[in-house]
Description:
The complex is a heterodimer.
Chain A: H1 2-10, E1 16-25, E2 28-38, E3 43-47, H2 54-61, E4 69-74, E5 77-78, H3 84-87, E6 90-93, H4 105-112, H5 121-130, H6 144-157, E7 162-166, H7 174-191, E8 194-199, H8 202-208, E9 211-216, E10 219-225, H9 226-232, E11 233-238, E12 252-255, E13 261-266, E14 283-286, H10 289-297
Parallel strand pairs in A: 3-8, 3-9, 6-7, 7-8
Antiparallel strand pairs in A: 1-2, 1-4, 4-5, 9-10, 11-13, 11-14, 12-13
Helix pairs in contact in A: 5-6
Chain B: H1 16-29, H2 42-49, H3 53-65, E1 69-72, E2 76-79, H4 89-94, H5 97-109, H6 114-124
Antiparallel strand pairs in B: 1-2
Helix pairs in contact in B: 1-3, 2-3
Amino acid sequence: MNAVLKSAANDTAWPLQARGIVHAYEGRYVLQGVDLTLAPGSVLGLIGRNGAGKSTLIRALLGLLQPQAGEAFVFGEPALRMSDASKVRIAYVPQQPDALAWLSAAQMFDYLSRFYPKWDRAYAQRMLDRWQIVPNKVMAKLSPGERQRVDLIRALASQPDLLVLDEPVAALDPVARRELLREIALRAGEQGATVLFSTHIVSDLERVASDIAFLHEGKLLLHCATDDTKECYARLWLPADQAVHVPADALSRRRHDDGSVSCVVARDAGARWPDAANRPGARIDALGLEDLFVEIAE
Amino acid sequence: MDASLLTIQPASPEPIYRQIVEQLRRLIASGQLHAGELLPSVRDVAGFHAINPMTVSRAYGLAESEGLLERLRGKGMAVASNGHATHSQSQRLALLDPQLSAVAQHARELELSADAVMRRLHKLMGDSK
Lengths: 298, 129
């Protein structure tokens, strides 16, 4: 028993942890009890429809918003009372960055480099060049896309142990997007950085995410390793005369006009599909993450 | 071998680490990769394709445990030296698994028995039995 208690106390090492986060806006519940733990070096892709509450969850995880219930921890400290030592280890890029808009990118980088002990000046300079940002232009005059690119460079140049990106790819063209994904993948894989990024572009996440979580109707569904998700879930289609055999624990079910049914099912502990998959005419289709997401979110 | 020899399809239902292992298997079986040939580093593959290095490590690890690759101390991964001459029947049979699984699935959809499919397969392979 002591050992169990002890290991629970050691969980303080998790870069991010949340328990039972609940939040509502004007009486509409956005988060309905979200639990989440990010292991060091993992890359979690958070998928959800527009308005699913991804940004709210991210803000609650980082202590930028006080949830109505539940608590979040960053490197073991309560997110709402984080120490400065922890704050310099994290970098967060919001969907619409607007901080320090009266400075130019060069001025902001110069200012921030004094606070971040691991600030990589050469990287920041190189990326401004690559992503074609005029370093001396006041940021308020940059386009929203340029502004977000500056903020991504800012986040990466601080060499954070925890990198949190809210819809980071919207402002990037395909080449820059690939560069960002490469950067995320290598920093996590080689330097042990932990990354959380939200997106509704599922194919980006399939490249780099080690884990995925669907935020749907206020809850996290299918929080597991990306590879396992693809291997463990599939769509089961049953013809009309077999439709009654839809497994009770199917994750979603849809009845088609001809009476046939599709549902999302999971393999059991022995890696077998539910018995219904062996019914006459039944069909199991492997799904990519995007199809899986659509099946469940619809 | 160059990292660009691999093709990654992130949206495929097949996990990326399996895509890599399957491609290595085919490249080795077809002789495009020779015994002893060095593989690109995990970093090179991950960087080139913008995929998670852990996915590449997992693929290499799986390929090593299947005897496709071997770890050369200080040099990284190389195509296993035992070559395909020594590929056991079960190893070669395993190469057909994806296609056979697809055949099995289609046969079930068409409500055909395994016996009927087997008879057809025997015929296709020129086996008179």
